Amino acid sequence: MSGTVPTIREILQANGRLPVSALTLGEDDDLYQHGLTSHASVNVMLALEDAFGVEFPDVLLRRDTFKSVAAIQNALASLGVDQ
Amino acid sequence: MTTDAEEFRLALFDAGLLVPGSVSGAYHRSFVFEAVVRGIESFVSAAGRDAERRQFYCAPLLSQSALAKSGYVISFPNLIGVLSSFSRPEKDLPELIERVESGGDWPEMMSPNGLALGGAACHHIYPTLAGVEVPADGLLYEVQATCHRHEPSDDPARMQSFSMREFVFVGPEAGALAHRDLWLQRGAQLLEQLGLAVETVPANDPFFGRVGKLMGASQREKEAKFELVTEITSSNPGAISSGNYHGEHFGEEFSITVPEGVTAHSSCFGFGLERITLALFRRHGLDTANWPSDVRSRLNLVN
Prior knowledge:
By secondary structure, chain A is mainly alpha-helical. Chain A has 3 helices and no strands. The model of chain A has no long low-confidence stretch (mean pLDDT 92).
């Protein structure tokens, strides 16, 4: 398991405003199905950028990017973050 | 602005249809221009005759709290208009006078007074329904308002003060979606009956900033908003009407429910009156006397 996943889960827990615990969701579970709204996804995006010191390029500013823990992990990996 | 757009703009001024106001995007409209607007108002209103609806012209002012609840302050902080006035004690008047007379920074002495200009007609409806349980099959409105969006531009298609007539539904989810879809179809038909070639396309609002790109992408992917586009002031098509499904956003913010205690959904379809008028002048020419007789008749442009 990559080192980014625990942080991703913490950020979702703190910013995702999900009615379920982000700490126990499956990595491929659809976050939108589990209550992630557009506004919350924006907060998650900003928190991820802050935590990992990255900026999501325009091409990643899509719903898909934040669709699941795994999707976020992949997006971060594409930006060179995998530790 | 392209040459084509610039030429059309100057032609509108030459014809006396629009007179530039004292700020960019503020236009005074001739009575001929406004006669077309009146015609569009009654033409679209008649099409909505099949359903009971509450109809009113809105006062163009919102409270700051209503503006915040609409979501505009977070989503489009650069487009809003928040009013301010002088609320300092009289002892500060000499300084105000001094600044005004010397061309100094007198606006700095103003402070927000609790009022804001509305950016969309339907925003005036939700505060009137705050805490209200609407009937199970929803409520329908037909409202018109002068709206403000702070978007300085020389393009008359982007006025800072413009009007829209909206058909708004507040009620159950299925009803809100059906309302939007009905009017997307009906609106396109009406505009085509006026001789305009419109295309219906998915769209997104211009949410502010980088985060706005994600918001816009989300809106587009959810197909919440569609625009009816055609040539307005140039050969680049622009939106002259739009249909929006809001989900529970306004129901949540204003505590509007349907029985029993379920958060209401809402949707709206808005006709951009000045844009439609401009599109008509572009399509049919600057002299309404020469417009096709069926269009003139539909817009009550007699003699």
